[in-house]
Amino acid sequence: MIRLNNGFQLLFNLLWWMPVFYQYQKQAGLSDSQIFGIQSVYYVAFCLLEMPTGFIADRIGQRRCMQLGAAAMTAANLIPVASPSFAGFMAHFLAIAAARSLVSGASSAYLYEYLHEHGADEHYVQAEGTARALGLWAKIACWPLVGVLMQVRHEAPYVLTALSTLGSLACAAALPAIAALPAIPAPRGGGHPPAERVGLLDSARQAAKVLRTSRSLGPLMVQGVAVFTLARICQVNLFQPLLLEKHLPVADHGAVLSAMTVAEAVGSARTGWLRGRLSDTTVVTVLSVVMALTLAATTLSGSWGTILWLCVFAGAAGLAYPVQRNLINAAIPPTPYRATLLSVESIIDRGVCALVALAVGAYLAADRLDALLVHAAAGTCLLLLVVGVVLGRLRRDGARPAAGQS
Prior knowledge:
Layout: H1 2-12, H2 21-27, H3 32-60, H4 62-76, H5 79-82, H6 86-117, H7 124-142, H8 146-152, H9 156-174, H10 200-213, H11 217-245, H12 253-269, H13 272-275, H14 280-297, H15 303-331, H16 338-365, H17 369-405
């Protein structure tokens, strides 16, 4: 199962077009406002689709949901080939939003539930990190070739991405089934109804009840916003504008992204470096601050300094992501609504990304990229400070009853 999961994650996330999609859309005649407007719509669509797709995963099974997501992603990457226009790219990203929302909660929930079923919970963090690292190494090997492939055939990045996601569909089809999590029996005075007997709204209500009863889950989700938003906005929305600002030619962008991905892959495969010294919550906080400060540091650097800081940023992201995933999964109690709850986290992440994407477009239109990076770093540190205070208070409140009992 772990090998098949590694293959699925590698091929589903191998987006050949990532280093060049900004320039690709510019060559198709799109303006900056159109490009970042599409990105904002993408994040909003992701938010709107997360809850229904989380419900679908809990209803039909996480494995089947992963298969649907892979099929949708394959179709999505053929749209720019057929229609390289504003409407075509809008449809492309809307289809990607549907595909990724089908997979985002389902894949993590499937891995966690399968390992739990087989008494191998302790392997989850390493399995998550290894899958991510292998996917990143594949990008390292492929992305430097994108510029050359585009010269041979302009639409090659999108065709190759569609072929890769078709391979992820084959991996998802071969994944072993897991036993359905039994519904939580209703205690006296009420409780969770069986997941398979409720509709979307009832499923959302029951997931909300679980979220309320787990006092730390909400703050941990908000803490994860920093990691996800910084990584997504830097590697997708700001990557090319930042390198163009530093006068790095487009032909070198794939190599730079590959160097960043090397750093991220090393971090993802070495999650134990910090976990043996710090708590998981502290690890995520420290690495999020590092990510924010390295982005701000690029404002004072030239082209080579910027590449160095971006690699440090990527390494911190690679270390943080599997630990943050484990924090969220561990905070969710046994429930048939795990995928729905993970979708709630994705809604928060993508909602913030939608707002930030709009801000990115506005800052770039005003030629204020450096100000954007400094403001993003300051906002991240403020958010983490608030979350740290809340989590610290929850820990103290939880310790008081134990002290009273002793």
